[in-house]
Amino acid sequence: MDVYQGGRHLYTWKVSTGKRGHSTPTGLFRPIRLSKYYHSKTYHNAPMPYSVFFAKGYALHGTKSITSLGKRASHGCVRLRPSHAKLFYKIVKNAGLGNTRIQIIN
What we know:
globular; 1 helix
């Protein structure tokens, strides 16, 4: 995952995306909402810290499954290292939902 602000590259992070049968939506999105301490209503109340929702039911969020980063391992969300999720959440919150774009290519 690459993070840009004002056209300037800030970070490159390993992420996990949707595994077989649970693809991550691709395209250009605006964040819909933020939730610092969200828990999944679909997947056994799984913690999704620092969630940045970009489509209905899909978010970029922190994970404790650090060893899965760089692999397809989620149910469609984009998982990040907790410290990266916290930083991304802060960047989006400070910039504003309307001023943020999320592009998911692959």
